[in-house]
Records
---
Amino acid sequence: MDILPAVDILDGRCVQLVQGRREEATVYGDPLAWAGTWLDAGADALHVINLDGAFGQATKNADLIRGLIRETAVTVELGGGIRSVEDAAGWLELGVERVILGTLAVREPGAVRAIADEFGSSHVMAGVDARGGEVVIEGWEESAGDYLAWAERFESLGAGSLLFTNVDVEGLQQGIALEPIVRLLARTRLPVVASGGVSSTTDVAALRDAGAAGAVLGSALYAGKIRIEEALEAAHAQE
C-alpha cells in the first residue's frame, strides 16, 4: 500500500485545514521545503492539493506547483481547481502522474472519459469526497448524491483510480472511519486511495488489511502524531 504525504497549498503556503474549512487553516510554511522533508524521510510520492483552486482561484499557486513538480521529480497526484479537460491536460503534460477530478467529474462526467481516452486511465483519479455518504463538491460546499453510485459511474467512465476523502473525519486527527471505505472497496474494482483521519499506524494497518491501494497522511503527519517511517512500515508489513 502506498503512503502519500499531503502538501496542501493555500496562498502560497503549506497548510492543513479542518474538514475543509478555510478559516481553520494551520499554516506550516514553504510547500517545497515540506515536500523535501517527506521525501527525505522515505516517501516516494506526493499528494498535492491547490486549495485556492478548490475555492475558485484555479490559476493561483500554479507557478509554485510547477516548480514543485520539476524539483522533486517524484510521482505527484494533483487536485484542486482542475475545472476543464484543458486544465487536466496541461498538468499531465507537465509531468503530474495523476490528476484528481472532483467537481469537474461531477459537473461534466464526460471529462473523465475524455482525459482517460487521451492520456490513459492510469492518469485519471476521480475524487469521491463524501460527507454523510453524499459526494460533496465546490470546495465541499454542495452535495451531489450517493458516493457509491458516483464511484461506480466514475469507474464506468474510465477512471483508473479513486481518491476517497471522508470529510466527516478529515483533519480531526481522531482516526479513520473504516466502514465507508470497506463499502466502497466492495463496490469497485478500481484502486482506492483513502484520505481523512489517518492518524496512527493502526489506521494504516486497517486500510492495508481492507485492501486500500494507498493512504494520504495530512494533519496528523504535520502535527507529529504519525511519522512517515512508521506509516511506511505499517503499510508494507505483510508484503
Note: The chain has a mean pLDDT of 94.
---
Amino acid sequence: MTLPLHPVSAVGALADALRRRVLSGEIAAGTPLPEQELSARYGVARPTVREALAVLVHEGLLKRERHRSAQVVEVTVTDLDDLMFVRRPLEDLMAGALAGRRVAEADAALTRMAALPGDAPWSDVVAEHMALHQALIVAVGSPRLERLYGMLAVETRLGLVRLREVYTDRNVLVAEHRELLDAIGRGPAPAARQAVAAHLEHGWGE
C-alpha cells in the first residue's frame, strides 16, 4: 500500500532552508536572525518565520532571549573540548562492542557521503557524517548508550561546521571514515578501540 505524500509546509520548508544554511556555515555562530529580514528574504509572513525559528530553537541550533532576535548557537573551543571528553568513552564502548562487525547502515551513509556532488552544501556532509556515527552507536544495541549519545547530537552537528575549513578536499574525509569502518570491521577489540580513539583525536575530534 502506497501512503499519500503530503506537501511540505511553509514553516517546514523555511526551517529546512535555515537549518541547511546554519550547518553549512553560511550563517555564522552568534548571527542574529531578525524576523522582518527573513520574512522579506523568503517572501513569507512573520508568523511563519516565528514558527520556523521556534523549530530550530527546539532543535538547539538557535537560541532566543526575550525581546531579542534568535541567533545561531555558538560552540566554543572549550565546549568542543568538553564535548570530546564525554564522547570518547561512549565511542570507546561502541568500538569494543562492534569490533569484528560491519554495520550496513554506516557503510551506506559513507557511500552517500562519497556520492555527494562537489558543490553539495556542507550541511549534506554533516548529515551523512552524523548518520554514519549514529548508525554505529545504534548497532551496539544499548538504548542507554544511544540516548546518551543523542544528547550530544546538537553540539556535534554545530561543531562539524568548523570542519569544512579542515576538509576542503571531501575525499580525505571519506577516506578517513572508510579506514575507521574497516578497522572496526576487522577487529579485534583493542585495534578497533585504538582506531576510534585516533579518529576522534584528528582535527577537533572527527
Note: The chain has two domains: 10-72, 77-201.
---
Amino acid sequence: MLSLMGLRPAEVCGLRWEDVDLEAATIAIANTRTMMGNRYVRVRLYDARSSCLTYLANNGVPDHILARWAGHTNVKTTKKWYVKPDVEDLRGAATTWDGVHGAATEGQA
C-alpha cells in the first residue's frame, strides 16, 4: 500500500511503528533500509511508485506538490524518472494531431 502511495522501497523497508502517527494520519520517513544482513534487498516497488506519481500527475496534482510527495527537491527529477504517459495520454495527443491534420487536409480540397 505504501509503495502504491509513492514511497521508495528503501523507505517502506525502513519504516517503524514509531514513525506512524495514526491520530495525525502521517508517517515520518526517518530511516531507509536497503540491506538485510549482508544482502541487498531486490525489490521492484519502484514500478508502484511510478504508477502512483503518474496517476497523481495525470489527475491534476501540481508539479511542485508532486515533487514534494515524491521527496524530491527538483520537479524535473520527478517528471523525468517517475511520470510516464499512458495510452489515454497518447490518445489525447493523437486526437489533437488528427484535428490539425484534418483541418489541413480539408483546406487543401
Note: The chain has one domain: 9-108.
---
Amino acid sequence: MKNDPLYPTQDIIEAAHDRIKPYIHRTPILTSQTLDEISGAEIYFKCENFQKIGAFKARGGVNAVLSLASGEQERGIATHSSGNHAQAIAYAASVVGAKAYIVMPDNSPQVKVDAVRGYGAEVTFCKNTPEERQRIVDEVVARTGAVFVHPFNDYRVIAGQATATRELIEDSGVVFDTIMAPVGGGGLLSGTSLAAHYYSPLTKVIAGEPEGAADAVLSFKTGKIEKAPYVETIADGLLTYLGDKTLDIILRHVSDILTVSDNEIIAAMRLIWERMKIIVEPSCAVPLAALLKNKERFAGQKVGMILTGGNVDLGKLPF
C-alpha cells in the first residue's frame, strides 16, 4: 500500500497540516506533577479534548473534506460514526458549504448526536454493528450521491490525525521514549506511528485498547483483521475493528498494544478529571490506564500521550 499516491508520507502529512491549520486549534501540551509521581514516568499530554468539536477527529475529517475536488464536495459528504468523526465531517462540511449525511448508531451519546445536528448534518440511525453502519451508509450514498469518507480506513483521514503527533513532537521539544494513543479503528494510531517514524524515529509507539473491544491486539498478533471475542466497554469511541490500511501501518510502526479493563479506564479517567481539572471521555483515558497498569515498563521514561477527546455525556458519568 506504500505505493498508493495518497499514502501518508512525511510530505503528505506536512501538506495536511498546512491545509487544516486555519480550521483547527493547535492544542496545548499539559503536564501533571501528581500524575508523574503516580506513574513514575514524565508524561506530556497533547490535549485534543480542547480541539474543535472536542476531539482529534477534526484533523482527519477536515483534511479529508478539504482534499476533495470542489465537484465532489458539492455532492455532499457521507460517513458513519458513533460521534467524534461524525462531528468532524459535519464540521468540515460546514466549512466548505457542503451537505453532510451522517449514519450514527442508535445508542450514540445524545451529546454527540446533538452536536452533529448542530453543524447542520442530516442524521440517520442504525444498529450499532460495523456491518449495519456500512449497510445504511451505502443506502445513504446511493440515495444522495454523496462522497463516502471512511472514519479511519482512509489515507487522507490518517494524514490529518498524524498532525497531532507532529505538533506534540515539535512543540514539546522533547525526545520521547514512547508515545501512546488509544486504538479503535486505528486512524489515530496509524497516524501517530507514522508521525513518530518521520519526526522522532527513536520513539516507540504503544497503544491502549479496552479488554471489551480487544480486536486490534489480536490483529497485531495474527497480522490480519480480527474481530473482538466480545464487545462490551465504556469506551464507546473504540468499538470498531481495524481496516486494511490502518493495520498495514500499525504492523510496521507500532511496538505494542496493551489492554485494560473498564474499571482501569474509569480510574484513569477520574484521575485526569481530579488531578488535571480537564474533561476527558472514557476512550481518551485508555492510554493512561495502560501506562498505570504497566508502570514498570514505562518507569523513568518521557511519554507523550494523545488525550483524544472530551465529548462525554455529563448526565452519565461513570463516577
Note: Residues 155-172 form the longest helix (18 residues).
